TrEMBL record:
Name of the protein in its database record: Nitrilase
Database matches in Pfam families: CN_hydrolase
Recorded superkingdom: Bacteria
UniProt keyword annotations, A-Z: Hydrolase
GO aspect biological process, one term: putrescine biosynthetic process from arginine
UniProt cross-references to InterPro entries, sorted A to Z: Aliph_Amidase/BUP, C-N_Hydrolase, C-N_Hydrolase_sf
Keyword Hydrolase appears in the UniProt entry: yes
GO molecular function: N-carbamoylputrescine amidase activity
PROSITE patterns listed in its UniProt record: CN_HYDROLASE (PS50263)
Domain spans labelled CN hydrolase: 5-249
Length: 291
């Protein structure tokens, strides 16, 4: 893979709790991405389940090496896929997961860490919490930092991904207009969030959202690909659409030379202060303060 990378995002409406129908939809978008010669194709959060797919939890979970997932990856050829599904992990634990697939294999998997339970979002009812922030190298220069939706609303998780060496931020999301409340403008909020992270860390980013109504939520699309200075390279509308753009590692180098956020992160200070907080606010202290 060269210094340049063609990344794509597919936004569409998933069938709620119907993986077979959703696999058919995924194959259509995979074919479109291959026509666009995409190196990486990102699907929305829970793209194989639907936002409310967990209401049929035991019927639609799958293991990361489910034959249907591997067949989808083989159909993609050399294109790397980032696919959202409800993963059944060891000991019957169920996760909101995004798997990274290439050549018929699962090469990496992220389990959502920041599970929202506010507004109209009730993910803690269904999913176990992911416990790790990591990254995955897809070439010598390009390393995926993969975080799912509300993970990005905890800036510490994004910071950790970049400290782990991410040079491309990949963000499958499921954002409905009404999810949090009328006082919050989700489309504007996501635009600002993705701009901030790309600009701050000198890294391209790709966000893939779903579209259309699903029960009591309206999904607004707005999938986007940004360059390492925070500039939008491709932005989708509100209908089903594939967007694609080419990013260049030379621009990552230039952005990070001008604004060395990763270089200047003082990990020793952060570790010291976190340990100091734990010592000050730890369980024994809280118990003692409560009498």
């Amino acid at each position: 893979m060269s210094q340049t990378l063609t990344v794509a995002a597919a936004q569409f409406a998933s069938h709620i709790g119907d993986p077979d129908a959703n696999f058919g939809e995924h194959h259509v978008w995979v074919a479109e991405a291959r026509k666009a010669e995409a190196d990486v194709l990102v699907f929305p959060e829970l793209s194989l389940a639907g936002h409310y797919g967990a209401e049929r939890l035991l019927d639609i979970t799958m293991k990361r090496n489910d034959p249907r997932l591997l067949a989808l990856s083989r159909a993609a050829g050399e294109t790397i896929l980032v696919v959202g599904f409800i993963e059944e992990g060891p000991a019957a634990q169920f996760y909101n997961a995004a798997g990274v697939y290439k050549g018929g294999r699962c090469i990496y998997l992220h389990r959502k860490i920041n599970l929202p339970s506010y507004g109209k979002l009730i993910e803690t009812k269904y999913y176990a919490q992911g416990r790790f922030v990591d990254t995955h190298a897809i070439s010598e220069d390009w390393r995926l930092g993969l975080l799912i939706c509300a993970d990005l609303w905890n800036p510490a998780l994004v910071h950790l991904a970049f400290l782990h060496g991410a040079t491309l931020l990949v963000s499958p999301i499921s954002s409905g207009v009404e999810a949090v409340g009328e006082a919050f403008d989700n489309p504007a909020g996501w635009a600002a969030t993705m701009h901030f992270y790309s600009m701050m860390y000198g890294a391209p980013s790709v966000m893939a959202n779903r579209v259309g109504p699903e029960e009591d939520l309206t999904f607004w699309g707005g999938s986007r690909i940004l360059g390492p200075f925070g500039e939008p390279l491709a932005v989708a509308g509100t209908e089903p659409e594939l967007i694609a753009a080419t990013v260049d590692y030379a621009e990552v180098r230039r952005a990070r030379a001008l604004l060395p956020t990763v270089r200047d992160s003082n990990m020793g200070l952060v570790e010291r202060e976190m340990n100091r907080l734990i010592d000050r606010l730890g369980v024994p202290d809280i118990i003692r303060d409560d009498g």
